[in-house]
Amino acid sequence: MDAGQLAQLEVFCNSLYNATSEAERAQAHQTLLPLVQNPQCMPQLQYVLAHTSSAHALIFSATGLMKLITSHWTSVSDNQKEEMRNFLLDYLAKNGPDLYRSAPMGVSPVVRLLCRVIKLAWLEGPQHQNVTDRVSEFLKSSPLHWVLGLEIYTDLTTDMQPSIGPSMSRYRRTALSFRDTALPTIFTIGIQTLQQLTTGQINVADKAEERRLSKQVLQLACNCLSFDFMGTIPDDTSDEQGTVMVPHSWSMLRDDGIPKLFFDLFTRSCTNQWPECSKLSLQFLVLLAALRRSFFQKEEDRNRLLASMMQGTTGVLASKMGLQDHGCYHELCRLLGKLNATHQLNELCANEQFQAWIEQVYSFTMDSLRHWEVMPNSKHYLLGFWAAMVSPVILLGEKAPKALEAFIQQVTVAYVESRLFMAEASADPNNCNDWDDPLEDEVLRAEQLEVLSNLGRCRYQDTAQHIMKHFEEASRLGQQGLIPQAVFEKKMTWLVYMMGALVGGHASAKASRTDTDCAPTHVVNGELAGRIFKLITLTDAQKTSPEGLELAYLYFLEQFRKVYIGEHAKQVVQQQVSERLATVLGLEDENAVLGLLINKIGKNLQQRYMLEPVVKKTLALFHELAAGINIVHTSDRSPHLIVSGRLLLKNDMVKYILSNHASPEFGFLNHCLSYGKYRTMFYHTLGKLLFMDIRDNKEAFEKFMEPQSLILNTLWQQGVQNPQLLRQDCYKRPLIGLCRDLRGIGLACTSCEPYAMLFEWLVDNPKNPSANRVNLFARALDAWWDDPEVTTPLLKFMAEFVHNKAQRITFDQSSPNGILLFREASSILVTYGTRILQRTQFRDVYQEKYKGIGVSLDMFSHALHGNYTNFGVFELYSDNSLSNSMALALRMCLAIPLQELNAYLKALKPYYYFVELASRGHMSKVMELDTAALTLLMQSVEEGLLSFETGVQMQCCAVVDNVISYFHTQLTGKATQEQERVRRFLQEAPQCLQKILHLMFQLVMTGEFSSMWSISRPLLGLILLHDQHFLQLKEQLVNAQIEERRAKLRGYFDDLMAGVENTMNTKNKDHFTRNLYNFAQVVRTLS
């Protein structure tokens, strides 16, 4: 590249980042893209980096080089790696300070590129690990050189963190090596620099440069302490730090001066008005508070750290310094929460500063709750602080500090008040909220209610009375029209949620404070519930109701269910109870209490079906009641098992629903097609209750199924002569509904008896297979094959119907039912598959093609793996059902391009399940494919070995093992047509399995595969099948190593095959598995 080409490239780079029009940017992108895709362009990009004066060209070349070296590192020679690292270090040393002044945005990409080169080369020898020696030269020069050196360290500690993705195992080993070698030195440099800044040993004349230096070194300190020391790759979706597993050798963290240093840095940063530095100082202290307990050899060391933390936070809280900055406020809340989480209450109380500290935290919390709209998410840590105090305060009893209980109660009350203020503000249309309303955010709401449920356990009766007072007041004002309707609805919604949280928290097995002067708990629960049920009665009498309030009712009912089941169980097992919950509610008995819950469920399904979230949660509650099993603990006997479904069967509303389940009054059943999944959930729940009640009573089952029989018979009459008559809109919804209902009932068939009743209902004429009801679905599919609104629920029902889960499908030895069931699945597959493969145009290829193919393969896999069909019968009696369906299923697999298979893997997981089953028991059918098709199938298996889904990886290993085992069996047996097919495939596509052999060795040597046992089985077969290629591959892998490692690797390969015989018996496989495990362990020490 010459100066003219460089100038032209700079123009394009400027257009890429600063274009005035989209066309100009697109042209620049098209011109520059090849440079960052071809590894041969690395020298050109390096030339640009070395000679450009344009910041945009610098950014482009640095990011392009980073992308290329990350993707093509193995093709970079050792000399190039060394040269690139030295060039980047020299470039930054020479140009870094000027770049900071003229184009600061150009520094970071170059630093990140240097860090990536260091990271990728780290395990390739000690010569690549002397980073601290090279960077130390920066720290001996100007302030900006110092900042630059610290930025290198900061970015390096970030990039070295292991992450999920390709080469994950290698990066993890790199991170652990970095942790043990360079990281302690880097951390020490960071702390020493901070100490020198604080004491004035480093004196930077320019305040801006001092601020930049302070920020950089504080960020570095935080990066070092938040490093993933164990290589566990924790979830980073939250800013909450778990335990910091710092190595024991980092003894400087036990120094009393460390917490004081960072509190001093916080004060200094606040004084200088450097909020980002103040925030980082507190962030480091949060990490310091999270140090593992075992890091401290003596308890005194840990107590001294706690004392320093309490003293420092007390000072910050008293002075309120820096807390007007939202970042500092947030980090202080985190610090308080972390101190409480990592220390027990008795440890906190033992400190002489506890009283002053807890008073300051209380004052800060109350002030924060008065200003609830400021940083509401940060207050979660404060509320969590007090909520975590509840259990120890209750357990310590009289030994707990006297003021704590009152503090917790006042915080609880203030929190309740803040939610009601929030209700008013969120109901005001003119209020521009810059905070998230928890009533609109389910995750946020659940977090807040959980905190309240814990807080409420301290003085349960007092808190309940306070909330009930607000409930009565809001009800009165709302009924008199003294507050706007929107405010009334929001307040009542919050109050219902909070009452539910109180009941749910007190219903748990956790300890709670009881006050002999107050009413018993079940009386308070009854008073809370009585008000809610009264309000429910009022709103149920209205045609419409706010969605938020209805969801709050369901939350309360779910919490009340926990109490009710417990209370009811106690009535069952312990009759001596003075005041029952039912008595408080003014009801006759416990069944009447349960009736209140069921009546609300019934009303919602009848009246509130327009509100989809309400329908969803109502059905979930109904299912929980029907299927729930509770272990209830009582004081006078061992734990008691309560199956709540049996309680429901005594309820009149449940009996009514079971008798009238298809009635139009349950409007959600036919509200809209998108509600189909709720039909399935509804019938799943009803099925559970039905089978619990009738057991194997066929007459009762037939009576329950009468509405479905009516629909099925109507559809049957239309489709029996000509399936195309079913293709009318008037039949579409009934057909979809029928499939959804039957799938729900199928899901409820968890044992032989209920499944047998469903089977006999559908296969009602086994001696005349074509006249069975179940044939309707193949006919309907013939008519509606191109409409996914019909095909998806139909195929899902059939997939459930043929699924032998929990061995529920058992037929007599003399019964042909297993064959009939498989033939029906085969018919469905052929009907759908033949047509979908002929279609070429799709508006939505996922919905219209891949989803259906995925469910079809799932259904066929269930039929193949059901263990209720003797497949040898088909070929013996010249029945083509198996061969036709197998051939078509394989064609469906081959119709999915590899790229699409990866893109829609969630829906297409059955692809690999089917291929594994086909290769396990039907390999002769698979071998009927031509060489090109079989090669394509094996290529998809090769891709699957690289999947992030462990289940897919295991299935692909099993496929290769099945194929190789079949090949060995055929090749060592007598000459047959199957043997000829195997030989022809190996001759025409020898590289197909050789590529898989190569890939498997890569996975083993890089540690990218989790199960050595799973990969060892097919790997042995591949080595024995392609013995000459294995020898070539071994030499290739050995020669790829640097000279001094080659002999070692050759020895490891010799050990791998030591004692391995040319046979595929189990003993030989087990021996090879042991060798492979040892090989995998030692070979990773080379890199």
UniProtKB/TrEMBL annotation:
Protein's GO biological process: protein export from nucleus
Main location: cytoplasm
Gene Ontology CC entries for this record: cytoplasm; nuclear pore
Localization per record: Cytoplasm; Nucleus
GO molecular function: nuclear export signal receptor activity; small GTPase binding
Keywords annotated in UniProt: Cytoplasm, Nucleus, Protein transport, Transport
Listed name of the protein: Importin N-terminal domain-containing protein
Species name: Polarella glacialis
